[in-house]
Amino acid sequence: MDAAKETSWEPKIITFLCNWCSYAGADLAGVSRIQYPASTRTIRVPCSGRVNPLFILRALQNGADGILVSGCHPGDCHYLSGNYAARRKFSILAGLLEHVGIEKERVQFSWVSAAEAGRFAEVITEITEDVKKLGPANRMVKKRVH
Amino acid sequence: MENLSKEIREAVKKLFEEDKVDLVIGFENGSLPLKATPCFIRNIDDIDRLVWNSRCENNLAVYLTKNKGKIGIVAKGCDSRAIVGLMQENQIDRENLVIIGIPCGGMVDQKKIEKSLQEKEPLEVKENHDSLVIKGNGFEETLKISDILYDNCMSCKHRNPVIHDVLIGEPVEEQDDVDEFAGVKAFEEKSSDERWDHFVKQGEKCIRCYACRNACPFCFCEECSVDSSQPQWFGKSIALSDTQVFHLMRSFHIAGRCVDCGACVRACPMDVDLRFFNKKIEKDVRELFSHEAGIDPEAAPPLNTYNTDDYDDFIKS
Ligand code: SF4
Ligand code: SF4
Fold first, then answer.
1. Considering only CB atoms, which chain B residues are within 8 Å of A97?
2. N or C: which terminus of chain A carries fewer CB neighbours within 10 A?
3. Contact call for A100 and B242, based on CB within 8 A
4. Cα B86 to Cα B79: distance, rounded to the nearest angstrom
5. Atom of ligand 2 nearest to the CA of B243
């Protein structure tokens, strides 16, 4: 990659946001005019527990440079236990991805409530910085085979 | 070994006579001298087909979710753990299942045998207590069983069935000192690039035949998500990435369930290192959720439950 391209490169980060907390937190960040990097592509989900690990892998296949799954703080799930189930799944997935050589900063998780607009902006800023350091995703990206 | 085969036949005969079973799943001699193969006994006249030796490697529990009625099953350590796992998932009609447990000294690795024999073709095999005597045209080789076991058998900690209704033979000594996670730990020491390279190599070998899935007692879904075309969850191309996604999801789907029976590894025609994935997940499940698969029929599968104070450090908050 040439230097000009490198400096202008902005990562694409897919964020899976729970409707009841992080999505509302993102919304609040917006209406409060809090600035954060425009790196995210948001997918609203009913619960962090709805996020099948396959969604994350397919995002990687399709060229996402980073992925964030964000849900309600433990104890605050709209469906009572969706985020607890999610936490178990993602702890295993995170370990597996690191094991096979996917940098752990590429796929991240957070708890952000509907009131935490500032925190939401911070989390996005952090993951954007992390992914920028790693550079564009290459591993797992689906390449055409001729 | 002859004695154990005989003991199995006697136990099975009794089960048929007492009308406790309509079907017994066990092993018989295969068509090649070194092979044993699963067999399905539906008639008391056929019980002499049943054998037991160090080549009875298949995990027979895979057939339990595919057969109905009163079933008897020959179960070594790992088969019995798979049965317990299936009980946890309500896949077993326990009332109608007779578990014929058999302590296991480990199964011999066909590829390791091939290697020691080099190009020579085995025509006859005799099994002693701790060795195999293999004969062929102009040669005779004695191989020590403990040297040629499958990798998973070498690190197996449950050679004795964890559940049984009838027990054949005598309990064997457990290998309490082995570190079943030595392989994973060695990988954890390596750099991310080295682990990625290994992952790529496995993906490149895989031909997506799904034999690993078919052999696994825990892959019992009526429609596998890999086969579904509406919606099509998995990319079907030969791109490496599609194969890698398959491997990550296959191993994720057996998280907290895999009993390291090695059936997938043996089924694979391409020598894909499936334990690279399985053992990592098994280790994490053990460390994070204190769960060991296939031990306690009453335990909840770890990804079906949670604690409010589960590991949380990997999540920003
Ligand atoms: S994943 Fe492989 S080792 Fe684990 S239970 Fe299934 S067949 Fe056995
Ligand atoms: S059995 Fe081997 S080659 Fe076939 S799909 Fe599984 S890993 Fe791939």
1. 248
2. C
3. no
4. 10
5. 8
Residues 181-240 of B with CB under 8 A from A: 184, 187-188, 192-199, 225, 233-235, 237-240
C-alpha B195/C-alpha B207 separation (Å) is 21
Q: What pTM does this model have?
A: 0.95
Architecture of the domain delimited by A3-134:
3-Layer(aba) Sandwich (3.40)
pLDDT above 70: residue A102 = yes
The complex's ipTM works out to 0.94
Percent of chain B with pLDDT over 70: 100
How far off is chain A from B234, nearest CA to CA, in Å? 9
Residue B25 in tokens: 């799943």
Q: Cα(B191) to centroid of ligand 2, in Å?
A: 26
Chain B residues with beta carbon closer than 8 angstroms to that of A120: none
- For residues B234 and B59, give the distance between their C-alpha atoms in angstroms, rounded to a whole number: 27
What would the pLDDT profile of B281-291 be if each residue is shown by its tens digit? 999 999 999 99
pLDDT in tens, B268-279: 999 999 999 999
Backbone angles phi, psi at B144, to 5 degrees: -80, 125
What lies within 8 Å, CB to CB, of A42 at 6+ separation is A15, A17, A23, A26
Q: Among all residues of chain B, which has the CA nearest to that of A142? A: B241
